[in-house]
Amino acid sequence: MAIKFDMVKAYNHVKWNFIGEMMRKLGFPVKWIQLIMNCISIVSYSFMLNREVCGYIKPTKGLKQGDHISSYLFLICAEGFSSLIDNVVSSGKLSGFKCSKKGPVLSHLFFADDSLIFSKANEANCVAIREILDVYAMTSGQFVNLNKSAMCISHSMSAANGVKLASNVSVNLVNCLDRYLGLPCFIGRSKRKLFSDITDKVWNKIKGWGERFLSVGRKKILIKAVIQAIPIYTL
């Protein structure tokens, strides 16, 4: 089975001590850790009432949204999540997935805000995955958006068993994760079917512009800025 988890980027929930401990585990120098911790802990907030600044709030956790180092700090948090999964797999509580008999064991993949966890479809693995999510949320402050998460099972398993396993992790059961970030997850032999979405998007854009009174120069700008970017994003 494969479970896609959507990690909530809750900037105000990330615990500072978790980031500091992760940097120590990853081997960052002490001075560098102190510098980063000073950058994220120096934040304070005040209120402006009737054009007068009043009040003083000193947060104890959270990251500033839009900060240049926030994305890198979230990568450090993801590394902690990955290490937690590896430890559970090494202990034997969670079994990974093999694409072939001689292939390596695949337990998880991370990309952007999504996390994919692979394991054998049984209740014990579902319980282990749920425990991983609870431990990670408790230690880091990051949570999983279960409403946007989904489970996919093989065709050899019945839908009733799949629904039961999905309920153990509190996610929805879907037939197949056919699309990701607007692109198809599986590539078949028919390239025409694969790239038909690109031509449909291009024609829809052109039809929408055709209903407007645009000059030739504006149409050229839209073609270069929008139309040419659609296939580049796919490739």
TrEMBL record:
UniProt xrefs under SUPFAM superfamilies: DNA/RNA polymerases
Domain spans labelled Reverse transcriptase: 1-165
Pfam families recorded: RVT_1
Coiled-coil region list: none
PROSITE patterns listed in its UniProt record: RT_POL
Name of the protein: Reverse transcriptase domain-containing protein
